[in-house]
Amino acid sequence: MLDSLDGRVIGRCRVIQKLGKGGMSTIYLAHQMSVDRDVVIKVLSSSLLSDDTFMERFNREVETTAQLQHPHIIPIYDYGQYEGLPYIVMAYIKGGTLESLFKCGQMELSLASRIVGQVAEALDFAHGQGIIHRDVKPSNILLDSQQNAILTDFGVARVLSETQHLTQDMIVGTPFYIAPEMLAEGNIITPTVDIYALGVTLYQILSGTPPFVGQSTAQIMWAHVHAPVPLLAEVRNDLPPEIDGILQKALAKSPASRYTTAGELAADLASVATGQSLQIAHAAAPVDSDHFLQDANLQDAIHRALNQVVKIARPDGGTGSGIYLAGDRVVTCLHVVDGSPGLYVSFHTGERIEADVLATDNHLDLALLQLRATPSTLTDEQLDGIVLRVDPVEPGEALAAIGHPLGLDWSVTGGHYNALRQPGEEPLPRFGIVLAAPLVQVDVVINAGNSGGPIIDAEGHLIGIADSIINPAVANNIGFAIEGQMVLNFLEEHQDDIELLAPFSCEHHHAGDERYCPLTGKPIHKLDPVPMPTANTVRYTCGHLHEPGLEYCPLTGKPIFEIDRVQEECADTIQAAVPSVVCTNCGACYPVSLDVCPSCGKPRRT
After folding, report:
1. Residue 115 pLDDT > 90, yes or no?
2. Fewer Cβ close by (within 10 Å): the C or N end of the chain?
């Protein structure tokens, strides 16, 4: 990007001054001499030209969006290249942006309704022409002198989406406004991504901040996919309660649960703004785990089950959950343990025992482990907490998931049973396979690391084993579990197994001395076992436990530092009065007051 284009002639326009600069473009005020009017020129970054097809797609998108003739869509007058830099000439709107307007304070509902209604008209018109904006946000909504909304930047986000890879640092759209389905590779993008972004914009102009905020892109992205939408009533008690219903529907995780058109959102908002009562159909209210977990029967069932829920750790730092059974066996998900040269099982009591793989089922994603010793801290009475009997479950029944999310020590989340998805009925790919097991649909939160943990009802029955971390924007759900009866069938089938399986280089466990993987057909060899770390090992920034004094991780070869030492050193980088903590996932140092690591989004170990 050139330092300054002031005074330059671009096309038939003379640049007057720079108005602003973003990550991928710079905006200039210019004068179109042929018709004697002021215009805006948006000059894109030269970094985009590294893609040989960029200009072809840029020209195509601008030509298409230039045909959008609508009172609330910015007119495009010209486009081209100046000294190799792509540019677009657009109308100059003197009133500033919506972003600058609400920075003056929370907006009145009547004005918010009018502006959102005008943007909705523009979006519905564009959607009717087959064009999706992809980057609706306050800074892309201009205001004229009468505070009428003009939507700009159509087509630019699409070109960028085809040019950039989806990463934490370079992401199409702005993280504060991006719909959950845009964060999963391969998803079909529909007009509902614009409706979601319009909902975020509405939340922001009424509250002053977006619904999901954080100190890192990863943290914000995680919230869009998993976190419930905060209630606006907690910020502004002067607004009608129906506003939260509108926002919950507009910001539903699943596209199918949102408003079908932007106009429908605007119509509901206009009704509420004029004092009409309104019932929001199919509004997606956030799941309140605490509400479910306050049930006395469910609390008792959770308490009884705790001793049977174990944490499974691997030498590569991976973790999962499992269920301890009689005979010193543990049932878990296969993807938690497959191919690992070491498995370390930790109990609620703090005891740790090594384990081997006894049986696997690749089509069910289930594995059975055999402990190398009997836990000395458990009694027979503590093995009756989870009832290995499946009773019929009704939609809406309260459930609880117990596990160790993201390698943390403990987690209990509540929700309810939705349905049973049979094999072949909209099968869900899972780690390269399609599970042959029925899947229990739940709105119990299943996070990374919960896999293998039990989902139980208020009587302690095993409803299923937590398995799938599915983006709810894709699956219209929070999580899936392998149906309990399939787990019981698997246990019965392998109850007499005694031959241990060995880890191989194919990242599977097999019996005997296989030379070729039975699943892939590729040559393989056995892996050397990695014993459980001893008591004097320390936690390093690689996330593993090693002997003290190492400079490089024996597993990854990367430089590492002892967590405790980094904790001491980073105390100097954060104000002394602010307690700090080191992230066990990425090694970043951040204030202990934060619940998640601002660098990678991992919840803080408590």
Report:
1. yes
2. C
